[in-house]
Amino acid sequence: MGKELNSVSVEHTICPDIYHPAVARDGLLTRLRIPGGVLDTSQCLAIDHLLATTGLEYIQVTNRANLQLRALTGHIPTEVLIKLTDCGLAASNSAVDGIRNIMMSPTAGIDAQELIDIRPLAQAWHEYLSHHPELGILSTKFSVGFDGGGSVGIINRPNDITLLAVSDREFDLYLGIGDRGSAPLPVGVKLGLDECIPMLAAIAQSYRSGIELLGGDIRRKPRLRDIIRHWGLTGFSEIVQLEFTGSSHFIFKNLPISPISPPSPIPHIGVHRQSQSDRYYLGVVLLLGRWNRNQIEGLAEIAERYGNGTIRLTPWQNIILPDIQGIDLERVQALITDLDLIHTANHPSSLLRACAGSTGCKFGATYTQRDAIDLSNYLATKYKLDLPLSIHFSGCDRSCAQHDRADITLWGDDKSPDQSGHYRISIEGVPAAFERELSDLYSPAQVPIAIGKSIDAYHYQRLNLQESFRAFISRQSLSQLQQIFNVV
Ligand code: SF4
After folding, report:
1. For the whole model, what pTM was predicted?
2. For residue range 27-42, what is the model confidence (pLDDT) as tens digits?
3. Ligand 1 center to residue 54 CA distance, Å?
4. Strands 408-413 and 422-427
5. Domains recognised in the chain with CATH numbers
6. Which of 32, 308, 332, 354 would suit a FRET pair with 399, their CA atoms being 20 to 30 Å apart?
């Protein structure tokens, strides 16, 4: 069991919340749930105060568009917890704080291509959770996504339940019934606007009943997919139907999987026209999701003065500033650059991801965050990309930081002769038959050289400016690939 730490209890849980920090290698780890990923400036100031109180250098945006504090050396003082609760950054009922994982398309309500503005639904679901403390029994990984069908979709994010707008009045229901970390799948149910919250409520209540019936280790609660597997999809569907207060009759079905091409995470970076006249949003890159006090204060000031006073977090660990007038764009971009932040999609760090690695996780074979930052610094001085390149550092094979495949993945591996923490490189597009032949281990110092060489090869040898990195890699012979990635 965990030990008491003032008003919070410390658990060896897998997914902490603000009232239940977890013990990690580098200290206590806690998360702030940000329903819908939207922060107002008063919340930004509360986060700034939280950092000042704890003495931490930065807070990190997570791949669920929440916020995370690592390496805490002590408890969060009660008065700070009260402040976080007062401004909505923590649930007033600690039982449901951890299940407020509500993700929505980060451009909801401003996206010219969206079919439905899903913000009212996300808010309604948040209110439902706030009024149903019995759902505190659910896993703190329980997550619901709302995708309005616009240009910055979240349908491929691995939520337990996602509602995807398919017309201006209807959603398809998706459930996380695949493997761990995979995107939810459609189950053949269409929902009108007024049926969405009743359906979410029916699934959550059925999930709760399933946990109560199955019992077991209360700290390792089953995920929704485990409960569905236990009852079978049809059996679970019948239980949900009994809980459902709407009028529709439905049966969840396994449908033939038609591969959805993953929405590119890049469209939101840089300047984009909104659906509102003379309004733009600006996507800003946070290196590995890190957001320091100076940048928090600075972006809050910009949002207040030039935007609508809100900032949106994205599940790609970035930030969006909405509602900027055309006349202010240049000024806002200059202010963001002054904060040492990037706002161009083609910067080498725009699609860089890294898990906690050895610093914070006992499974890590490498210092992923350190090595990713070293790579970012190396690439930033030498390369200007004209097409985005995604790079992912993972301290072991669990791939916590990014579930979909990056162009280049560095896997921490302790099988090097001296067990000093080396990387295997996976490159998307490499024919399967060549993968074994390209299984060299790279020291952290060799990684930037290998990746730099591959960028050089791509820039000088691609067929044309439109050829992607993956397409370029896929037409290389084994000896060409060995030459590209050989750093000896
Ligand atoms: S990928 Fe492995 S090393 Fe990285 S945080 Fe997850 S479990 Fe830890």
Report:
1. 0.92
2. 999 999 999 999 999 9
3. 25
4. antiparallel
5. 270-338 (3.90.480.10), 352-485 (3.30.413.10)
6. 32
